[in-house]
């Protein structure tokens, strides 16, 4: 019920992105639609309601907004869900073994999740956290048997652009005109210097 995705959607309903005070760079880069910033803005509004009108008003304000959402937001915290399932089934907390490797000009992380001695799933991602979330998602698919949608759709590989064409050198100057320098003068009095 309370996660970044939900809070960001509630902030979008209120149009809070337009009220954020941002620097030029992040504003141009789409900062007004960043989920983390929108979620923080909604939390601030909810905190203001709490301070102004009390707990009950803040609780009902949030609940009414949440119920007005067109569709419930799924919690994409696969690590948290796996922890619950693993503790129920195995009585153990999942442990992640992550390793990074350089692939071309970027890093690729691989993570294996264990509950006891047996590996439950393996995941890959651009960051250690993404790899662990992916490993938890794979483990949940095998343990629960239900297909779990991945957190984010995979991004297509970036295409390399063609190298720039070299510019041709400008044509060489044919002849240069010689311009005589003015006679040097004193800065203070403007008289010729001898």
Task: Characterise the protein shown here.
There is one protein chain. The protein is an alpha+beta fold and 194 residues long. Among the domains are: 64 residues, Orthogonal Bundle (Ribonuclease iii, N-terminal Endonuclease Domain, Chain A); 67 residues, Double Stranded RNA Binding Domain (2-Layer Sandwich). It has 6 helices and 3 strands, in the order αααααβββα. α1 crosses α3 and α3 crosses α4. The longest helix has 19 residues. 17% of the residues are buried.
Percent of residues in helices: 40-55%
Mean pLDDT: 82
Query: Architecture of the domain at 78-144, CATH level 2?
Result: 2-Layer Sandwich
Please write the CATH class name of the domain at 78-144: Alpha Beta
| Strand percentage | 5-15%
**How many beta-strand segments?**
3
Whole-angstrom Rg: 30 Å
In short:
With 194 residues, this protein is an alpha+beta fold. The chain is 40% helix and 13% strand.
Strand-helix topology:
Blueprint: H1 4-14, H2 24-28, H3 35-53, H4 55-67, H5 78-90, E1 95-103, E2 106-114, E3 119-125, H6 128-144
Antiparallel strand pairs: 1-2, 2-3
Helix pairs in contact: 1-3, 3-4, 5-6
Brief descriptors of the model:
Ribonuclease iii, N-terminal Endonuclease Domain, Chain A, Double Stranded RNA Binding Domain, 6 helices, 3 strands
């Amino acid at each position: 019920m309370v996660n970044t995705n939900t809070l960001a959607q509630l902030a979008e309903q209120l149009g809070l992105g337009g009220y954020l005070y941002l620097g030029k760079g992040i504003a141009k880069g789409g900062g007004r639609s960043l989920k983390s910033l929108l979620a923080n803005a909604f939390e601030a509004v909810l905190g203001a309601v709490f301070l102004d009108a009390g707990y009950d008003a803040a609780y009902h304000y949030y609940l009414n907004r949440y119920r007005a959402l067109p569709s419930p937001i799924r919690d994409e915290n696969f690590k948290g869900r796996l922890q619950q399932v693993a503790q129920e089934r195995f009585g153990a907390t999942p442990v992640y073994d992550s390793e990074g490797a350089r692939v071309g000009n970027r890093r690729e992380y691989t993570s294996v999740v264990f509950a006891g001695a047996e590996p439950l799933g393996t995941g890959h991602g651009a960051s250690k956290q993404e790899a662990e979330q992916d490993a938890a998602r794979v483990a949940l698919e095998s343990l629960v048997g239900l297909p779990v949608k991945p957190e984010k759709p995979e991004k297509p590989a970036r295409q390399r652009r063609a190298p720039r064409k070299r510019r041709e050198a400008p044509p060489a100057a044919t002849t240069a005109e010689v311009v005589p320098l003015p006679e040097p003068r004193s800065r203070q009095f403007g008289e010729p210097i001898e």
